[in-house]
Amino acid sequence: MTSPSPDPEDLLEIADLAPSAATAVGEISGRWRVATWLRHATTIVALGVVVTVLLLTATRSESALTTIAHARPAWIVAVAGVAAVTYAMAAACTIGSTTVRLARGRTVVMQVASSFVNRFVPGGVGGAVLNVRYLERAGARRSEAVTANALNNVAGLAVHLALFLGLLPFFGGLQRDVDPPDDAGAYVAILVGLVVVGAAVWIRWIPQHWKGHLRVMQLAASDVLRDPRRLTLLLLGSAGVTLAHGAGLWCALRSVDAHVTPTDVMVVYLVAAAAASISPTPGGLGAIEVALVTGLTRTGTPTTAAAAAVVIYRLVTYWLPVLPGLVAFRRLRRIGAI
Questions:
Q1: Which ranges does the record mark as transmembrane (predicted)?
Q2: 103-133 burial string, b = 16+ CB within 10 Å, else e?
Q3: Which residues contact 331 (CB under 8 A, 6 or more apart)?
Q4: In angstroms, what CA-CA distances link 307 with 236, 251, 292?
């Protein structure tokens, strides 16, 4: 929810280019192409590299792989349950960001479908295009759909910052004298590299589009502020998504018997998500794993436990929803909702 918002005009261009959008989203045209499969394979390889790095570098006391194998199933199920909550909260955000009446159940399904398309497109562009299509099919004008999507992103950013500033004074890691892990330098180097590349990409877009973007935001914000119900749904939904992700990470830590306060986990997640939001990889792949492990070790969590918990968290919340997302995507296409 905190990733930099794609420019509204960019979204319109993407939505108008059916073949290009089909390739970016995955299967909008209904036919898989070789390029799509290559993109999927590349993403899976990237995941393998990230997981391997985490497993091989987390070598304190026992391997992270062994730690994962002995994880408590009940807590892993809890991670999945909390992850499911994020889709309901994201649907609330979408409903609150537009004046068009949306079916709640179908909007939740649309969020699940977004979890599929966003795995293969950086910056959340795939989900943004899908959201615009969904709102248009529900009766919104193109400008209204793009505005709602952008407003959703701005609300997420505002809530993210508010939570971070509110919780930071209670972050125990600020007072701890923790020896960094031996591989801390490699973690930091990877994270900084991804952030720098991502920032360069986003900064290139800002000078060209910021005026139109702010103009759309101003109009959308004025509409929401005049409707307390919409504003409540938008803000509570945004907060719910962020808090649920933090809770999922905490449950993953508990599954490997790592004891970290919920406040510390939440602050670590907020920082990691912000750093990963400008990564050039889909869903911050690579950047967020590194940031989470580094942040958790700062709270005193052993590197092995931190790495194992992050792998569990990402497998359940990032990769597990891909197949249900594909099913949801195809269902929405079949009934003409996108």
A1: 37-55, 75-95, 116-134, 154-174, 186-205, 231-253, 265-285, 305-329
A2: eeebbbbbbbbbbbbbbbbbbbbbbbbbbbb
A3: 109, 113
A4: 31, 14, 8
Identify the residue whose tokens are 């005193």: 300
In the chain, the amino acid numbered 78 is: A
Sign of the Cα torsion 131, 134, 139, 141 reads positive
- Find out whether 296 and 43 touch, Cβ atoms under 8 Å: no
Task: Please report which confidence band the pLDDT of residue 3 belongs to, taking 50, 70 and 90 as the band edges.
Answer: very low
Q: For the purposes of burial, counting CB atoms within 10 Å of the CB of 222, is it exposed (0-12), middle (13-18) or buried (19 or more)?
A: exposed
pLDDT tens digits, 125-168: 778 889 999 999 998 888 888 888 888 888 888 899 899 988 88
- Residue 148's nearest CA partner among 220, 226, 232, 229 is 220
Asked if residue 289 lies in contact with residue 266, where contact means CB atoms within 8 angstroms, the answer is no
Show the tokens assigned to 189: 């180097």
Nearest to 239 by CA among 152, 154, 163: 163
**Of 209, 288, 279, whose CA–CA distance to 6 is shortest?**
209
**CA 338 to mean position of chain CA atoms:** 21
CA distance 141 to 98: 11
DSSP for 206-273? HHHHHHHHHHHHHHHHHHHHT-HHHHHHHHHHHHHHHHHHHHHHHHHHHHTT----HHHHHHHHHHHH
Burial degree of 269 (CB within 10 A; 0-12, 13-18, 19+): buried
What is the C-alpha to C-alpha distance for residues 230 and 212, in angstroms, rounded to an integer? 23
Q: Which residue type occupies 287?
A: A
Query: Other CB atoms closer than 10 Å to residue 216's CB: what's the count?
Result: 21
| pLDDT single digits (tens) 272-283 | 998 888 777 777
